[in-house]
Protein backbone atom coordinates (compact mmCIF):
# COMPACT_ATOMS: atom_id res chain seq x y z
CA UNK A 1 0.00 0.00 0.00
CA UNK A 2 2.92 2.33 0.55
CA UNK A 3 3.46 4.70 -2.35
CA UNK A 4 6.81 4.55 -4.14
CA UNK A 5 8.02 7.82 -5.57
CA UNK A 6 10.02 7.88 -8.80
CA UNK A 7 13.80 7.97 -8.40
CA UNK A 8 15.21 11.40 -9.14
CA UNK A 9 18.53 12.22 -10.76
CA UNK A 10 19.97 15.74 -10.85
CA UNK A 11 20.58 16.76 -14.44
CA UNK A 12 20.66 19.90 -16.59
CA UNK A 13 17.56 21.67 -15.41
CA UNK A 14 15.65 22.01 -12.16
CA UNK A 15 11.98 22.74 -11.78
CA UNK A 16 12.91 25.37 -9.21
CA UNK A 17 14.67 27.63 -11.69
CA UNK A 18 12.23 26.63 -14.42
CA UNK A 19 9.39 28.24 -12.49
CA UNK A 20 10.56 31.75 -13.28
CA UNK A 21 13.00 31.23 -16.14
CA UNK A 22 11.68 32.15 -19.57
CA UNK A 23 11.79 29.31 -22.03
CA UNK A 24 14.73 29.24 -24.43
CA UNK A 25 12.86 29.01 -27.73
CA UNK A 26 15.73 27.52 -29.73
CA UNK A 27 16.56 24.89 -27.13
CA UNK A 28 12.98 23.84 -26.58
CA UNK A 29 12.31 23.73 -30.32
CA UNK A 30 15.18 21.29 -30.73
CA UNK A 31 14.03 19.20 -27.76
CA UNK A 32 10.40 19.09 -28.91
CA UNK A 33 11.37 18.07 -32.43
CA UNK A 34 13.52 15.23 -31.04
CA UNK A 35 10.71 14.29 -28.63
CA UNK A 36 8.33 13.77 -31.56
CA UNK A 37 10.88 12.14 -33.88
CA UNK A 38 12.08 9.60 -31.33
CA UNK A 39 8.62 8.71 -30.03
CA UNK A 40 7.47 8.03 -33.57
CA UNK A 41 10.64 6.05 -34.25
CA UNK A 42 10.79 3.94 -31.10
CA UNK A 43 7.29 3.60 -29.63
CA UNK A 44 5.62 0.41 -30.81
CA UNK A 45 2.25 2.09 -31.45
CA UNK A 46 2.37 5.77 -30.58
CA UNK A 47 -1.04 6.70 -31.92
CA UNK A 48 -3.11 3.88 -30.46
CA UNK A 49 -5.09 6.24 -28.18
CA UNK A 50 -4.37 9.75 -29.43
CA UNK A 51 -4.59 10.39 -33.17
CA UNK A 52 -1.59 11.69 -35.06
CA UNK A 53 -3.61 14.74 -36.04
CA UNK A 54 -4.47 15.61 -32.44
CA UNK A 55 -0.91 14.95 -31.30
CA UNK A 56 0.58 17.18 -34.01
CA UNK A 57 -1.92 19.97 -33.35
CA UNK A 58 -1.18 20.04 -29.64
CA UNK A 59 2.55 19.94 -30.25
CA UNK A 60 2.32 22.80 -32.71
CA UNK A 61 0.30 24.81 -30.20
CA UNK A 62 3.01 24.30 -27.59
CA UNK A 63 5.74 25.32 -30.00
CA UNK A 64 3.90 28.39 -31.25
CA UNK A 65 3.81 29.92 -27.77
CA UNK A 66 7.30 29.08 -26.53
CA UNK A 67 8.32 32.74 -26.35
CA UNK A 68 5.47 33.38 -23.87
CA UNK A 69 6.23 30.45 -21.55
CA UNK A 70 8.56 29.54 -18.73
CA UNK A 71 10.52 26.30 -18.75
CA UNK A 72 8.10 24.90 -16.19
CA UNK A 73 5.03 25.68 -18.26
CA UNK A 74 6.59 23.93 -21.26
CA UNK A 75 7.34 20.90 -19.09
CA UNK A 76 3.75 20.80 -17.85
CA UNK A 77 2.38 21.15 -21.39
CA UNK A 78 4.52 18.24 -22.58
CA UNK A 79 3.54 16.15 -19.56
CA UNK A 80 -0.12 16.79 -20.37
CA UNK A 81 0.38 15.76 -24.00
CA UNK A 82 2.43 12.68 -23.14
CA UNK A 83 -0.26 11.61 -20.69
CA UNK A 84 -2.67 11.36 -23.61
CA UNK A 85 -0.52 8.69 -25.28
CA UNK A 86 -2.14 6.53 -22.66
CA UNK A 87 0.16 3.72 -21.57
CA UNK A 88 1.97 3.18 -18.31
CA UNK A 89 5.47 3.05 -19.77
CA UNK A 90 5.42 6.21 -21.89
CA UNK A 91 6.18 9.36 -19.93
CA UNK A 92 7.70 12.81 -19.97
CA UNK A 93 9.61 11.78 -16.91
CA UNK A 94 10.77 13.98 -14.05
CA UNK A 95 13.63 11.61 -13.28
CA UNK A 96 16.01 14.05 -14.91
CA UNK A 97 14.86 17.00 -12.85
CA UNK A 98 15.66 18.08 -9.31
CA UNK A 99 12.47 19.12 -7.56
CA UNK A 100 10.89 19.78 -4.18
CA UNK A 101 8.43 17.54 -2.38
CA UNK A 102 6.04 18.17 0.45
CA UNK A 103 6.90 15.79 3.32
CA UNK A 104 3.73 13.71 3.29
CA UNK A 105 2.42 10.79 1.27
CA UNK A 106 -1.27 10.30 0.67
CA UNK A 107 -3.32 7.32 -0.41
CA UNK A 108 -6.88 7.18 -1.67
CA UNK A 109 -9.22 4.86 0.19
CA UNK A 110 -13.00 4.94 -0.10
CA UNK A 111 -12.82 8.27 -1.87
CA UNK A 112 -10.73 9.90 0.85
CA UNK A 113 -7.08 10.95 0.67
CA UNK A 114 -5.37 9.75 3.84
CA UNK A 115 -1.89 10.62 5.09
CA UNK A 116 0.10 7.38 5.34
CA UNK A 117 3.62 8.77 5.69
CA UNK A 118 5.27 11.95 6.96
CA UNK A 119 8.22 13.18 8.97
CA UNK A 120 8.27 13.02 12.76
CA UNK A 121 7.55 16.73 13.05
CA UNK A 122 4.10 16.14 11.57
CA UNK A 123 3.40 12.68 12.96
CA UNK A 124 0.02 13.87 14.28
CA UNK A 125 -1.10 14.10 10.64
CA UNK A 126 -0.85 10.33 10.12
CA UNK A 127 -4.23 8.89 9.27
CA UNK A 128 -5.91 12.25 8.74
CA UNK A 129 -7.75 13.12 5.54
CA UNK A 130 -6.28 15.80 3.29
CA UNK A 131 -9.18 18.01 2.19
CA UNK A 132 -7.55 21.16 0.76
CA UNK A 133 -4.28 22.78 -0.31
CA UNK A 134 -4.03 26.57 -0.18
CA UNK A 135 -7.78 26.68 0.22
CA UNK A 136 -8.49 24.68 -2.92
CA UNK A 137 -10.47 21.47 -2.34
CA UNK A 138 -8.58 18.24 -2.85
CA UNK A 139 -11.02 17.32 -5.62
CA UNK A 140 -9.79 20.30 -7.65
CA UNK A 141 -6.16 19.50 -6.90
CA UNK A 142 -6.62 15.88 -7.96
CA UNK A 143 -8.51 16.82 -11.12
CA UNK A 144 -5.75 19.09 -12.38
CA UNK A 145 -2.79 16.97 -11.29
CA UNK A 146 -4.28 13.81 -12.82
CA UNK A 147 -4.12 15.47 -16.25
CA UNK A 148 -0.33 15.59 -16.09
CA UNK A 149 0.50 12.56 -13.90
CA UNK A 150 2.75 10.16 -15.81
CA UNK A 151 2.95 6.34 -15.96
CA UNK A 152 -0.83 5.95 -15.92
CA UNK A 153 -2.88 3.38 -17.79
CA UNK A 154 -5.91 2.61 -15.64
CA UNK A 155 -7.95 3.93 -12.73
CA UNK A 156 -5.68 2.30 -10.15
CA UNK A 157 -2.43 3.76 -11.46
CA UNK A 158 -4.12 7.12 -11.96
CA UNK A 159 -4.90 7.25 -8.25
CA UNK A 160 -1.38 6.22 -7.22
CA UNK A 161 0.48 8.51 -9.62
CA UNK A 162 -1.78 11.48 -8.93
CA UNK A 163 -0.99 11.14 -5.22
CA UNK A 164 2.72 11.20 -6.06
CA UNK A 165 2.69 14.16 -8.41
CA UNK A 166 0.38 16.16 -6.13
CA UNK A 167 3.23 16.39 -3.61
CA UNK A 168 5.68 18.04 -6.05
CA UNK A 169 5.56 21.68 -5.01
CA UNK A 170 6.71 23.18 -8.31
CA UNK A 171 4.00 21.36 -10.23
CA UNK A 172 1.28 22.63 -7.91
CA UNK A 173 2.66 26.13 -8.35
CA UNK A 174 2.96 25.74 -12.12
CA UNK A 175 -0.67 24.57 -12.29
CA UNK A 176 -1.64 27.70 -10.30
CA UNK A 177 -2.94 25.58 -7.46
CA UNK A 178 -0.64 27.13 -4.86
CA UNK A 179 0.43 30.72 -4.32
CA UNK A 180 4.15 30.05 -3.80
CA UNK A 181 6.70 27.53 -5.03
CA UNK A 182 7.94 25.97 -1.83
CA UNK A 183 5.20 26.12 0.78
CA UNK A 184 1.45 25.79 1.02
CA UNK A 185 -1.32 25.56 3.58
CA UNK A 186 -2.54 21.96 3.88
CA UNK A 187 -5.91 21.40 5.52
CA UNK A 188 -6.72 18.08 7.15
CA UNK A 189 -9.67 16.63 9.00
CA UNK A 190 -9.68 13.77 11.49
CA UNK A 191 -12.33 11.13 12.11
CA UNK A 192 -13.99 13.40 14.68
CA UNK A 193 -14.35 16.07 11.94
CA UNK A 194 -11.82 18.37 13.56
CA UNK A 195 -9.96 20.48 11.00
CA UNK A 196 -6.26 21.28 11.12
CA UNK A 197 -4.38 23.59 8.76
CA UNK A 198 -0.60 23.27 8.62
CA UNK A 199 1.85 25.32 6.57
CA UNK A 200 4.13 22.74 4.97
CA UNK A 201 7.49 23.57 3.43
CA UNK A 202 8.70 21.40 0.57
CA UNK A 203 12.17 19.88 0.67
CA UNK A 204 14.58 19.10 -2.15
CA UNK A 205 14.27 15.71 -3.76
CA UNK A 206 17.83 14.88 -2.68
CA UNK A 207 17.08 15.66 0.96
CA UNK A 208 13.73 13.92 0.73
CA UNK A 209 15.16 10.59 -0.37
CA UNK A 210 18.06 10.76 2.07
CA UNK A 211 15.81 11.67 4.99
CA UNK A 212 15.60 8.99 7.66
CA UNK A 213 13.11 10.90 9.77
CA UNK A 214 10.01 9.59 8.01
CA UNK A 215 7.41 7.53 9.81
CA UNK A 216 4.55 5.67 8.22
CA UNK A 217 1.51 3.59 8.94
CA UNK A 218 2.46 -0.04 8.49
CA UNK A 219 0.79 -3.39 8.91
CA UNK A 220 2.20 -6.50 10.53
CA UNK A 221 1.43 -10.17 10.08
CA UNK A 222 1.95 -11.94 13.44
CA UNK A 223 2.03 -15.35 11.75
CA UNK A 224 5.03 -14.37 9.60
CA UNK A 225 8.49 -13.61 10.95
CA UNK A 226 10.81 -11.76 8.62
CA UNK A 227 14.23 -13.45 8.38
CA UNK A 228 17.19 -11.54 9.80
CA UNK A 229 19.81 -12.76 7.30
CA UNK A 230 18.32 -11.19 4.19
CA UNK A 231 20.25 -10.52 1.02
CA UNK A 232 17.36 -8.40 -0.28
CA UNK A 233 14.68 -6.69 1.73
CA UNK A 234 12.34 -6.98 -1.26
CA UNK A 235 12.62 -10.74 -1.83
CA UNK A 236 12.42 -13.30 0.97
CA UNK A 237 10.34 -16.16 2.28
CA UNK A 238 9.23 -17.38 5.67
CA UNK A 239 7.01 -20.14 7.05
CA UNK A 240 3.50 -19.19 8.10
CA UNK A 241 3.19 -20.13 11.76
CA UNK A 242 0.83 -22.96 12.71
CA UNK A 243 0.21 -23.90 9.08
CA UNK A 244 1.87 -25.91 6.32
CA UNK A 245 2.28 -22.76 4.23
CA UNK A 246 5.06 -20.37 3.28
CA UNK A 247 4.90 -16.68 2.53
CA UNK A 248 7.03 -15.20 -0.28
CA UNK A 249 7.64 -11.44 -0.22
CA UNK A 250 8.19 -10.42 -3.84
CA UNK A 251 8.31 -6.62 -3.88
CA UNK A 252 10.96 -6.10 -6.56
CA UNK A 253 13.07 -8.02 -9.05
CA UNK A 254 16.59 -9.39 -8.54
CA UNK A 255 18.91 -10.64 -11.29
CA UNK A 256 18.34 -14.00 -12.99
CA UNK A 257 21.19 -15.56 -11.02
CA UNK A 258 19.80 -14.28 -7.74
CA UNK A 259 16.31 -15.52 -8.54
CA UNK A 260 17.73 -18.93 -9.44
CA UNK A 261 19.42 -19.19 -6.04
CA UNK A 262 16.30 -17.93 -4.32
CA UNK A 263 14.08 -20.39 -6.19
CA UNK A 264 16.37 -23.26 -5.26
CA UNK A 265 16.29 -22.29 -1.57
CA UNK A 266 12.48 -22.01 -1.59
CA UNK A 267 12.13 -25.39 -3.29
CA UNK A 268 14.53 -26.99 -0.81
CA UNK A 269 12.51 -25.63 2.10
CA UNK A 270 9.23 -26.83 0.58
CA UNK A 271 10.61 -30.34 0.12
CA UNK A 272 12.08 -30.53 3.61
CA UNK A 273 8.92 -29.25 5.33
CA UNK A 274 6.18 -30.83 3.22
CA UNK A 275 4.67 -27.43 2.42
CA UNK A 276 1.07 -27.42 1.17
CA UNK A 277 0.29 -23.73 0.60
CA UNK A 278 2.24 -20.90 -1.04
CA UNK A 279 1.46 -17.18 -0.75
CA UNK A 280 3.24 -14.90 -3.22
CA UNK A 281 2.92 -11.24 -2.22
CA UNK A 282 3.22 -8.97 -5.25
CA UNK A 283 1.77 -5.91 -3.54
CA UNK A 284 3.77 -2.72 -3.89
CA UNK A 285 5.91 -4.32 -6.62
CA UNK A 286 6.78 -1.63 -9.14
CA UNK A 287 8.00 -4.04 -11.80
CA UNK A 288 11.19 -5.20 -13.46
CA UNK A 289 11.85 -8.16 -15.77
CA UNK A 290 8.86 -10.48 -15.77
CA UNK A 291 11.00 -13.28 -17.20
CA UNK A 292 12.81 -13.29 -13.84
CA UNK A 293 9.44 -13.89 -12.21
CA UNK A 294 8.82 -16.92 -14.39
CA UNK A 295 12.04 -18.38 -12.94
CA UNK A 296 10.39 -18.40 -9.54
CA UNK A 297 7.34 -20.12 -10.97
CA UNK A 298 9.58 -22.78 -12.54
CA UNK A 299 11.06 -23.79 -9.18
CA UNK A 300 7.74 -23.67 -7.35
CA UNK A 301 6.21 -25.94 -9.95
CA UNK A 302 8.72 -28.67 -9.05
CA UNK A 303 7.21 -29.03 -5.57
CA UNK A 304 4.87 -32.04 -5.49
CA UNK A 305 3.79 -31.54 -1.88
CA UNK A 306 1.92 -28.31 -2.70
CA UNK A 307 -1.86 -28.31 -2.99
CA UNK A 308 -1.94 -27.33 -6.64
CA UNK A 309 -5.73 -27.37 -6.75
CA UNK A 310 -6.41 -24.61 -4.22
CA UNK A 311 -3.27 -23.92 -2.22
CA UNK A 312 -1.50 -21.15 -4.15
CA UNK A 313 -2.33 -17.49 -3.55
CA UNK A 314 -1.05 -14.31 -5.20
CA UNK A 315 -1.62 -10.97 -3.46
CA UNK A 316 -2.02 -7.82 -5.58
CA UNK A 317 -2.92 -4.19 -5.01
CA UNK A 318 -3.11 -0.91 -6.92
CA UNK A 319 0.69 -0.58 -6.67
CA UNK A 320 1.32 -3.87 -8.47
CA UNK A 321 2.81 -2.52 -11.69
CA UNK A 322 4.31 -3.60 -14.99
CA UNK A 323 6.17 -6.93 -14.77
CA UNK A 324 4.49 -7.71 -11.46
CA UNK A 325 1.11 -7.41 -13.17
CA UNK A 326 2.34 -9.72 -15.93
CA UNK A 327 3.61 -12.27 -13.41
CA UNK A 328 0.36 -12.12 -11.44
CA UNK A 329 -1.55 -13.03 -14.58
CA UNK A 330 0.99 -15.74 -15.44
CA UNK A 331 0.92 -17.25 -11.96
CA UNK A 332 -2.83 -17.52 -12.22
CA UNK A 333 -2.34 -19.61 -15.37
CA UNK A 334 0.77 -21.71 -14.71
CA UNK A 335 0.50 -22.10 -10.93
CA UNK A 336 -3.30 -22.19 -10.77
CA UNK A 337 -3.00 -19.34 -8.27
CA UNK A 338 -5.95 -17.58 -6.73
CA UNK A 339 -5.42 -13.82 -6.93
CA UNK A 340 -6.51 -12.00 -3.80
CA UNK A 341 -6.62 -8.26 -3.13
CA UNK A 342 -7.08 -5.23 -5.34
CA UNK A 343 -6.87 -4.84 -9.15
CA UNK A 344 -3.35 -4.10 -10.36
CA UNK A 345 -2.11 -0.69 -11.42
CA UNK A 346 -1.05 -1.99 -14.85
CA UNK A 347 -3.06 -3.86 -17.43
CA UNK A 348 -2.36 -7.52 -18.23
CA UNK A 349 -2.62 -6.81 -21.95
CA UNK A 350 -1.04 -3.64 -23.25
CA UNK A 351 2.07 -1.69 -24.12
CA UNK A 352 5.06 -2.43 -21.90
CA UNK A 353 8.84 -2.97 -21.85
CA UNK A 354 10.27 0.50 -21.32
CA UNK A 355 12.89 2.24 -23.42
CA UNK A 356 14.12 5.80 -22.99
CA UNK A 357 16.00 8.70 -24.53
CA UNK A 358 17.20 12.02 -23.15
CA UNK A 359 16.46 15.45 -24.59
CA UNK A 360 19.76 17.29 -25.22
CA UNK A 361 18.98 20.72 -23.82
CA UNK A 362 16.56 20.22 -20.96
CA UNK A 363 18.11 16.90 -19.98
CA UNK A 364 14.64 15.45 -19.53
CA UNK A 365 14.24 11.70 -19.93
CA UNK A 366 11.37 10.51 -22.12
CA UNK A 367 10.30 6.89 -21.78
CA UNK A 368 8.30 4.81 -24.24
CA UNK A 369 6.83 1.34 -24.73
CA UNK A 370 8.68 -1.11 -26.97
CA UNK A 371 6.45 -4.20 -26.84
CA UNK A 372 2.82 -5.25 -26.80
CA UNK A 373 2.11 -8.07 -24.34
CA UNK A 374 -1.09 -10.08 -24.02
CA UNK A 375 -1.32 -12.03 -20.79
CA UNK A 376 -5.10 -12.36 -20.93
CA UNK A 377 -7.50 -13.24 -23.73
CA UNK A 378 -9.96 -10.71 -22.33
CA UNK A 379 -8.79 -7.14 -21.87
CA UNK A 380 -9.38 -5.74 -18.38
CA UNK A 381 -8.36 -2.62 -16.52
CA UNK A 382 -5.77 -4.26 -14.35
CA UNK A 383 -5.60 -7.92 -13.38
CA UNK A 384 -8.89 -8.47 -11.63
CA UNK A 385 -8.58 -10.56 -8.47
CA UNK A 386 -10.48 -13.79 -7.98
CA UNK A 387 -11.22 -12.57 -4.47
CA UNK A 388 -11.56 -8.79 -4.37
CA UNK A 389 -10.49 -7.33 -1.03
CA UNK A 390 -9.70 -3.64 -0.76
CA UNK A 391 -7.53 -2.31 2.02
CA UNK A 392 -9.81 -1.64 4.97
CA UNK A 393 -8.87 1.67 6.56
CA UNK A 394 -10.01 0.73 10.04
CA UNK A 395 -7.81 -2.38 9.89
CA UNK A 396 -4.88 -0.70 8.19
CA UNK A 397 -4.78 2.22 10.64
CA UNK A 398 -4.49 -0.35 13.44
CA UNK A 399 -1.65 -2.20 11.71
CA UNK A 400 -3.80 -5.10 10.52
CA UNK A 401 -3.30 -6.49 7.00
CA UNK A 402 -6.88 -7.44 6.16
CA UNK A 403 -5.94 -8.89 2.75
CA UNK A 404 -3.42 -11.30 4.22
CA UNK A 405 -5.81 -12.02 7.07
CA UNK A 406 -8.34 -13.39 4.59
CA UNK A 407 -5.69 -15.68 3.09
CA UNK A 408 -4.63 -16.95 6.51
CA UNK A 409 -8.23 -17.77 7.39
CA UNK A 410 -8.64 -19.58 4.09
CA UNK A 411 -5.47 -21.62 4.65
CA UNK A 412 -6.48 -22.55 8.20
CA UNK A 413 -9.92 -23.54 6.96
CA UNK A 414 -8.32 -26.18 4.76
CA UNK A 415 -6.60 -27.92 7.66
Low-confidence blocks of residues:
1-12
Number of helices: 13
| Ends apart, CA distance between termini | 30 Å
Given the C-alpha coordinates, what overall shape results? globular
- The CATH top-level class label of the domain at 235-346 and 382-413: Alpha Beta
Strand order of the largest sheet: 13-14-15-16-17-20
- Which superfamily, in CATH terms, is the homologous superfamily of the domain at 235-346 and 382-413? 2-enoyl-CoA Hydratase, Chain A, domain 1
Radius of gyration: 22 Å
Q: Indicate the mean pLDDT.
A: 94
Structural class: alpha/beta
Q: Approximately how much helix is present in the residues? A: 25-40%
Assigned CATH architecture of the domain at 235-346 and 382-413: Alpha-Beta Complex
* Number of extended strands: 20
Task: Kindly estimate the percentage of residues that lie in beta strands according to DSSP.
Answer: 15-25%
**Sheet with the most strands, sense and barrel status:** 6 strands, mixed
- CATH topology descriptor of the domain at 235-346 and 382-413: 2-enoyl-CoA Hydratase, Chain A, domain 1
What would a concise description of this structure say?
With 415 residues, the chain is of the alpha/beta class. It is 33% helix and 23% strand. A six-stranded mixed beta sheet has the order 13-14-15-16-17-20, with helices on both faces. Strands 8-7-9-10 form a four-stranded antiparallel beta sheet. A three-stranded antiparallel beta sheet has the order 2-19-18.
What does this protein structure show overall?
With 415 residues, the protein is of the alpha/beta class. Among the domains are: 102-216, PDZ domain (Pdz3 Domain, Roll), CATH 2.30.42; 235-346 and 382-413, 2-enoyl-CoA Hydratase, Chain A, domain 1 (Alpha-Beta Complex), CATH 3.90.226. The chain is built from 13 helices and 20 strands. It has helices spanning 15-18, 25-42, 52-64, 71-83, 138-145, 155-165, 169-174, 205-210, 256-273, 290-300, 322-334, 393-396, 402-413; strands at 13-14, 91-92, 97-98, 100-101, 104-109, 112-119, 129-133, 136-137, 183-189, 195-201, 203-204, 214-216, 235-240, 245-250, 277-281, 312-316, 338-341, 349-358, 365-374, 387-388. The strands form six sheets. The protein has a six-stranded mixed sheet, with helices on both faces. It has a four-stranded antiparallel sheet with strand order 8-7-9-10. A hairpin with a 4-residue loop joins strand 13 and strand 14 (245-250). Helix 3 runs antiparallel to helix 4 (71-83). The longest helix is centred in the first third of the chain and has 18 residues, at 25-42. The chain is globular and about 70 Å long. The two termini are 30 Å apart. Mean pLDDT is 94; it is low at 1-12.
Amino acid sequence: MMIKFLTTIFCLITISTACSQSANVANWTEDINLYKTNLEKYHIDLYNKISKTEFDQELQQIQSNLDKKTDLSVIIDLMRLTRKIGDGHTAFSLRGIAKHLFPIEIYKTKGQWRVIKTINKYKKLLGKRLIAIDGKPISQIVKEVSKIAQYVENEQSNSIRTAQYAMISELLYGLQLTATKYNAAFTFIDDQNKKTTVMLNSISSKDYYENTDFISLETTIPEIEKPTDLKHDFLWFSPIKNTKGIYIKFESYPSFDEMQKFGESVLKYIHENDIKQIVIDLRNNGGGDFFVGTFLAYYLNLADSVDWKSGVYVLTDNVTFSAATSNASQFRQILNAKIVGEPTGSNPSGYQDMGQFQLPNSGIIVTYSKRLFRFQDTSTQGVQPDVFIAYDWDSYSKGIDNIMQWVLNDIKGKE
